[in-house]
Amino acid sequence: MRARANLVVIRSSFAALTLLCLASCAQFGPGGPGSALVGKPAPPFDLVMLDGRHFRLSEHKGNQVVLLDMWATWCGPCRRELPIVAGVARDYHGRGLVVCAVNLREDKQKVAAFAKSEKIALPVVLDEQGVVAQQYHANAIPMLVLIDKAGIVRFVHVGLRSDIKTALHAEIDELLATKVAAADPSSSVQ
């Protein structure tokens, strides 16, 4: 009898959790929880890449679309998404897309060893203190952020989706076809 009562409680809790999740997803829309960023200027950052150079978001404003892939070596879905993102980067090579893999809170040696062993063909930057993750509200990974030429976040994808390559192609095509409006002096992406 007690086991049956526990089962009822578990089922009720699961049902409530499912409804909460569905309500949250509906609230945030297709981009997931990171969608609060959509339509806002991309938070500026300047991070060191594995090769020692700097990646400054401001250097791409005005002429390039930027795709950020927030990930970590311990994240299975991130590891499965990285080759997809690398393929998208190859598909758009020389066409106005810059792709950057932002590693979250891991040390350089670990990330470098992983990048070498997995043959990651993307620029990898190190967010060792989690500052960029916090600015972009990366509470779940993998997280993809598409920033238009004007420096505005246009699309956010949280979690690994089976159709992510198709979705990215459609979104990148849209952003590359859009002309950059006159610069607004009040918005500054660094």
Number of helices: 5
- What best-fitting shape do the alpha-carbon axes yield? globular
Helix/strand/pairing class, anyone? alpha/beta
Distance between the termini: 63 Å
Order of helices and strands: HEEEHEHEHEEH
Strand order of the largest sheet: 5-4-3-6-7
Biggest β-sheet strands, sense, barrel: 5 strands, mixed
Task: Note down, in words, how this protein is organized.
The chain has 190 residues and is an alpha/beta fold. The protein contains five helices and seven strands, in the order αβββαβαβαββα. It has helices at residues 2-28, 76-91, 108-118, 131-135, 164-177, and strands at residues 46-48, 54-56, 65-71, 97-104, 124-127, 143-147, 153-158. The chain has a five-stranded mixed sheet with strand order 5-4-3-6-7. A two-stranded antiparallel ribbon has the order 1-2. α2 links the parallel β3 and β4 (97-104). The protein is globular. Mean pLDDT is 83; it is low at 5-34 and 183-190.
